[in-house]
Amino acid sequence: MNRSQHIFGSGLVFAVGLWVAWVSYTQQPAEAFLFPRLIATVFVGLAGWTFGKAVMGLSKVGNGVTRAMFLNMLPGLIITLIYVFWAAKSLGFYTATAIAFFVLLSIYDPDPHTEAKTWVKRGVITAVFLAVMYGLFAMLLNVYTPREILF
Amino acid sequence: MEFIYYFGDVFTPLSFMLLLGGTIGGLILGATPGLSPTMAVALLIPFTFQLEAAQGLILLGAAYTSTVAGGAVSAILLKIPGAPANIATTLDGHTMAKQGQGARALQLSFLASAVGGIFGVLLLIFLTPVLAQWALAFGPSHLFWLAILGVTVIGTLDSASVVKGLLSGCIGLWLATIGFDDIMGAQRFIFHPALGGGINIIAALIGLFAIPQVLTMFAKGRHNTGAEVIEVQRHSILEAFRELFSRTRALSIGTLTGSIIGLIPGVGGQIAGLVAYDQTKKFSSEKDKFGTGHSEGVIAAESANNAMVGPSLVPLLTLSIPGSPTAAVLLGGLLIHGIFPGSDLFDNHPDVAWTFINSMLIGQVLMCIFGLYVAGLAARVAQVPQSVMAAIVLSLSVFGAYSVQGSMGDVYVMACLGIGMFFLERFGFSAAPLVLGLILGPIAEANFIQGGMIADASVGKASYFLTGGLNLFLIAVVLASIAYSVWMELRSRRYTTKEEAQA
Amino acid sequence: MRRMIAGAALGLMSLAGAAAAEEYPERPIMMMVSYGAGGATDFQARIVTMTSGNEDALGMPIAIINKPGAGGRVGWNWFATQADPDGYTLAAYNVPHFIAQSIKGGVEYSTDSFEPIANWGADPAVFVVGADSEFNSMEDVVAFAKENPGKLTVSGAGLFVGHHIAALQIDKAAGTKMAYIPTKGGGAAAMKAVIAGEVLGGINNLSDAFRAQEAGNVKILGVADLERNAFLPDVPTMMEQGLDVDNSSVNFRGVMVPKGTSPEIIEKLSATVPEMFANSRVAKKMEAGGSPMHIMTRDEVIEMWAQRQQTLNELLAGL
């Protein structure tokens, strides 16, 4: 389990290294790519070494991702991805944040879902947090975030 | 001793109000992820339009000092370094907070900041003319070697495996080359439009440190066991004082490194904390404790990044050359009032110059008092339930990354780097060396190319980069640093094999 | 029927457009500066927009956002490709920088990508040397450059910005070949190289050089403009020193919007913004900071852009 994960992880880094090297050595103008070439060479060397060690099962550092961890993380990760890559821009920052915040809270809050009190608490926390964010970013710092629907 | 004469000006009611406001506001701005000191000071410039020159500068000076220290708050409590200066603070500071020692970490960080900061401002007061010459002595070849010195730190910084540390550094160096190259203007590795502007360092910092945090909290799942609730220990300020002054080695290494590196135009502020942390670790008798919530780490990092504040203004105040982005913004604040830094400033507007410098001195003290006052309260952040914390940190990261340049691209980059970093961390890579590569890459590259161009037109590359006292000194330090790392690596390997043999 | 609906929709849209322009601006406006905070462009942009919140100006504040990198390419590329043409996203332009860069290629903008609104300043390039340099006039500089081809190191803010254009023009006029060293970090870094003696000379903004001369760090040998500058009445122009260098390298700074912004908004901006620049408080602050002002209306800027495009096409053709 752990060994195959290490192979996968370091293999990915190695692949990125090879791609970087390939791009650096083929793109023009050469002067602008002098430094990337230098970096890419060292990059590939070190990544190759790490990959080799992983293949031989000698990687000791790092615990990998267990199945339980991954399953726990998955809903949060999916919501994060939707929030960052779609909702924030399309729904407006504050709307998207409110929804994402509330949903994440509901998923990971250990309090029982069956009690009305829990839901009120989650709603209040979300509202307070959004008020603070709005006060800090919109009113104090004058940062104009995409608003789209609502505010 | 001229500066004492102008101390009275700091204590007029309006000035003192501004100083207080600037300090408290600066702490809040500094603690907000995504707001670097440079941005915080730039945000305050419009307020100075309405003020007298000296008063405007009091506000800016106070804000500059306290934003740098404020960055430590989010670094310790949320593991989001507000600026590159606070990266080193996360390494031990956040670990301490997780162990319930947030109050202690914050107290130490504010005290160390104040000690370092006051030392730095005193240097600015007494040694400015000497230091100005020193700041100018660093040309492209020296900055190049300095950046390489930073690179040699990479392997040993917060990483269990030297090879993976170096590899993380390489990834950082590569990420830094994305975008337009600064000198030729060629496009490099722009495989998505969001990368057109390169990777913004602040957005990257937020992503690399905060997002893995969030995902780790998610990974723990919904059912928190009782053991997860952290008990925040109270910590008396007096004890923090005592601890700070029993760690004189960390404090003095941090302060000195910060002051010296802060002086160098274009490099200083960003790496002062990391270099000081690394040096302290090398000289410490408790090397193994670094990274596990060791107070020396916090003290060294924070004293260094505040010690850099004073010296970083030397080139600006004497030569009218801003040595750091924040100094550049302060230059704007001076120019708006028709004051030109340089001899003009000290000869014709001594009241402005000295009031400004004094306000930074007093600002350090105020920042420390206020910081100590809130430290106990702020440390309770560690008690916030994981589910709430994860959502807060995620939202703050998105807002913070967006507000850097008002660009969605930075938010995407932040998220991608963060998610990638989470998985890399699971395989033994770490964020600190990666960020160090990201910071040092452009410095090394630009100075190598620029130095090379000057060298080709004059003495040739070899003699330009390899001769001269300062070059040779820096090269010697680089070699010593590498030799030390190798020696430590070999020694620790012998230890582990022995232990394994015994087991 | 279908045509009627289409017509009605079109009418409604233009109506909505007009109404939007009527109320414009109803929220704070953002202005992108493609150089770092504290640089000359950023500093001046902050001053000239400081009164925009006044009722007689736009009635809404303008917030400055910096997108520095690669001599301005990063910011302008973003502005041309990703900025919304809704009137709430303005940008500062620097001519000849962005025109020269668009001629050299590798970027996604040209004069056709932007609509100018108004010009606020003109900062000529000047030739500076360290205070203890043995050069005392452009003649000395040219003589040295002729004797030592490729050995005269001259710093400037980047490739294909005003400073580089001035260096190219001097080379062309004098028949020399200087070693132009672009620095990372803009005019300030280029000036530091001159003061520290890393290079033999430098080309820099008049406003920055004026300050450095006041501080006693540099000597200014020539101004690359048609006339002497009010800030430096004693410094001769390049032409006076026998070098045929015109005002092509003068750094014009002003405000523009992306192509596609509605004509009503452009009209409103180009009527209000020059007056906003002319505010006496703005003029006083600019004067205090040593920054020469030069207000031009939209029509004048359009003409100036076209003219620069032509001269730069010729100058850069041989490279």
TrEMBL record, chain A:
Keywords: Membrane, Transmembrane, Transmembrane helix
Top-level division of the source organism's lineage: Bacteria
Transmembrane regions: 7-25, 37-56, 68-86, 92-111, 123-144
Electron transport recorded as keyword: no
Domain DUF1468 positions: 12-146
Keyword Transmembrane helix: yes
Protein name: Tripartite tricarboxylate transporter TctB family protein
UniProtKB/TrEMBL annotation, chain B:
Transmembrane segments: 16-45, 105-127, 134-155, 189-211, 251-277, 316-340, 352-375, 387-405, 411-441, 462-487
Entry keywords, A to Z: Membrane, Transmembrane, Transmembrane helix
Organism superkingdom: Bacteria
Domain DUF112: 17-436
Keyword Iron-sulfur: no
Family annotation (InterPro entries): DUF112_TM (IPR002823)
Entry-linked PANTHER family: TRICARBOXYLIC TRANSPORT PROTEIN (PTHR35342)
Protein name: Tripartite tricarboxylate transporter TctA family protein
UniProtKB/TrEMBL annotation, chain C:
Gene3D superfamilies linked to this entry: Bordetella uptake gene, domain 1, Periplasmic binding protein-like II
Signal peptide segment: 1-21
Keyword Signal: yes
Keywords noted in UniProt: Receptor, Signal
Family affiliation: Belongs to the UPF0065 (bug) family.
Descriptive protein name: Tripartite tricarboxylate transporter family receptor
Protein species of origin: Ruegeria denitrificans
